[in-house]
Amino acid sequence: MEQAQEKRPTLRSLAEITGLGISTVSQALRDSPEISEETRKRVKLAALQAGYRPNRAGVRLRTGKTNVITVVLNPQDSGSGFFADFVFGISDGLAGTPYHLVVTPYSLEDPMAPIRYIVETGSADGVIFSRLQPDDPRVRFLSQHAIPFACHGRTDMGLAHPFYDFDNDRFGFEAVSQLARRGRRRLALLGPPPGLTYESHTYAGFERGLIANDCESVPIGSAHAESPLADVDELARRLCRQPNPPDGYICSNAAAAAALASSVAAEGFEIGKDFDVICKSLPELLHMLLPQMLFVPESFRAAGHSLARLVIAAINGEPVEQLQIVSFA
User: Fold this and answer.
1) CATH no. for residue 210?
2) How confident is the model over 250-290, as pLDDT tens digits?
3) Is residue 196 included in any domain, yes or no?
4) Do residues 157 and 140 make contact, with C-beta atoms less than 8 angstroms apart?
5) What is the C-alpha separation between 12 and 16, in angstroms, rounded?
6) Is the pLDDT reported for residue 63 higher than 60?
7) Dihedral sign computed on CA atoms, order 285, 288, 293, 297
8) What is the dihedral of CA 65, 69, 75, 79, to 10 degrees?
């Protein structure tokens, strides 16, 4: 054990490798502006080649920082490929920084539980989370405790905070417009779950699109894009058996869109001929299985990458107004 510890690269061994002082090496690894960019690159390359890893316990003792960014996610979000791509994007955004990523799952029954734990234990320097509500207690709690964070989504609570959000209003409008250009006029929207901010954004865009394209909405009841797939199947079959069934469907979730398209087809309707379905961010496998499915691209990797940068900027104290992004890509 002692022999293994002796072989572990240290600031001293990096100083010997680079021919620099220990203090210079330490500052270079922390991106100190007092050290030239050329020296920082040289030290970081030496650290990478030597396999150097800072002792996080020591860092916390010296600086009070954990060098940890925690992303709090619901594992059920994996159905559309969101979970893996989002985490990959955050990891990519943190590359080359001192920060390490910790993924913390949570239950929808108590989304505040991991947030309280992070604040009470001081286990992270910054937090990333999703599924924003118009009046989100997580945003209020973290703001009150001065914990830097960045959200995938927005609130309507009048409290400025860092966020990256997909333009779901525009998605709703563009989805209707694409279907209208294909001659579809009776449209059903299987939108986001109730209670999330992007639900109202999506429906607002959908309503604008209906008016602009002279289309009509087909009511679907209480179902939404995260309803159990069995419920989506039942909904699709019920709509198909109406005297005037929808000829266009809009889904906020790719998995629900695929289930809906399959169920409508099972009722004897042909996708691309009798009806069309459009959703967001269609995974490659589903696109191969259902090439007729229409979709509006949404990059979860880009969202994760941007949020990593936003939360670091929040940690560094940059103005909140500069840390707000609405994207349609």
Assistant:
1) 3.40.50.2300
2) 999 898 999 999 999 999 999 999 999 999 987 787 878 88
3) yes
4) yes
5) 6
6) no
7) positive
8) 180
Other Cβ atoms within 10 Å of 110 Cβ, number? 10
- pTM (2 d.p.): 0.81
Task: Based on the fold, state whether residues 284 and 306 are members of the same structural domain.
Answer: no
User: 13 and 118: one domain?
Assistant: no
Q: Name the residue type at position 107.
A: S
Measure the CA–CA gap between 260 and 232, rounded to whole angstroms: 6
| Tokens at 157, concatenated | 């609570």
Answer yes or no: are the C-beta atoms of 78 and 48 closer than 8 Å: no
Structure tokens at 61: 């003792």
* 232 and 217 in a common domain: yes
Do 283 and 313 share a domain, yes or no? Answer: no
Range of the domain at 99: 68-161+301-327
Residue 78 to residue 118: CA distance in whole angstroms: 23
Which residues, at least 6 apart from 215, have a Cβ–Cβ distance to it below 8 Å?
176, 179, 180, 184, 185, 186, 187, 209, 248
Look at the chain and report how many structural domains it folds into: 3
**Considering the domain boundaries, does residue 62 fall inside one?**
no
Amino acid at site 139:
V
CB 202 within 8 A of CB 168: yes
134-183, pLDDT tens digit by residue?
999 999 999 999 999 999 999 999 999 999 999 999 999 999 999 999 99
Q: Which residues of 73-91 are buried (b: 16+ CB within 10 A; e: fewer)?
A: bbeebebbbbbebbbebbb
- Pull the structure tokens for residue 312: 């670091």
Helices (H), 8-161: 11-18, 22-29, 37-50, 56-63, 82-94, 112-121, 137-144
The answer on 84 and 152 residing in a single domain is: yes
What is the distance between the alpha carbons of residues 7 and 48, in angstroms, rounded to a whole number? Answer: 15
In this structure, the answer to whether residues 48 and 144 fall within a common structural domain is: no
253: in domain: yes
- Is residue 89 domain-resident? yes
The CATH number assigned to the domain holding 12 equals 1.10.260.40
Closest CA to 113 of 149, 79, 151, 74: 74
Mark whether 85 and 14 lie in a shared domain: no
